[in-house]
Amino acid sequence: MDRTDTTAIAAGASPPDAMTWAPAGAPATTAAVTTTAATAPAPAPAPITTAAMARAYARSVVLEQWNNADRTATEAALIDLSLVVSELAANAVRHGGGLAGFEVTPTRQGVRLAVHDNSDVVPAAAFGPGSLPTKHHGNGYGWPVIIRLARDIAVDLRPGGGKTVSVLVPLV
């Protein structure tokens, strides 16, 4: 994946109000669920260290906290969510120096994901058009998939180093 250091762009960004951010001294790899005041937070599972663990956790949050009598995520929406989670977690492991944290926040529209890694490098493709590559030049399909399936993509540098990539995955 081509990467461009655009820290000047990301440095001024701030996380969305709906998200809860771990303090700089928090454990390196954590999983958290933040919810509205109407619901109690779910206990965090064991540290999320792989894409498979992240997928399972995100799915469980949707099934246990997002679904209700008025709305239910379709299997197609859950597949889209799994694809986005897989790509973000794999990028953190492969290009970001490791998965340093993973958060899932239910919202009215779907779930907001926050993936923390250990790299300050902002992927240039994160803000691209989502075009699929015509030839394989070392770049994959990850960011085009994320761009096509998610909304409100943000990349924010973390005070203690590394970055957080957050996206909203619609489920409605």
Verbal overview:
The protein has helices at residues 7-11, 51-66, 75-95, 142-149, and strands spanning 31-33, 99-106, 110-117, 151-157, 163-170. By secondary structure, the chain is an alpha+beta fold. Strands 1-2-3-5-4 form a 5-stranded mixed sheet. The longest helix has 21 residues, at 75-95. The termini are far apart. 34% of the residues are buried. Mean pLDDT is 77; it is low at 1-42.
For this entry, give a set of tags.
172 residues; alpha+beta; globular; disordered N terminus
Q: Approximately how much beta-strand content do the residues carry?
A: 15-25%
What does the main sheet amount to? Answer: 5 strands, mixed
**Oligomeric form:** single chain
- What is the arithmetic mean of pLDDT? 77
Number of strands: 5
Structural class: alpha+beta
Order of secondary-structure elements: HEHHEEHEE
Low-confidence stretches: 1-42
> How many helical elements?
4
Shape: globular
What's the helical proportion of residues? 25-40%
List the helices and strands and how they pair.
Blueprint: H1 7-11, E1 31-33, H2 51-66, H3 75-95, E2 99-106, E3 110-117, H4 142-149, E4 151-157, E5 163-170
Parallel strand pairs: 1-2
Antiparallel strand pairs: 2-3, 3-5, 4-5
Helix pairs in contact: 2-3, 3-4
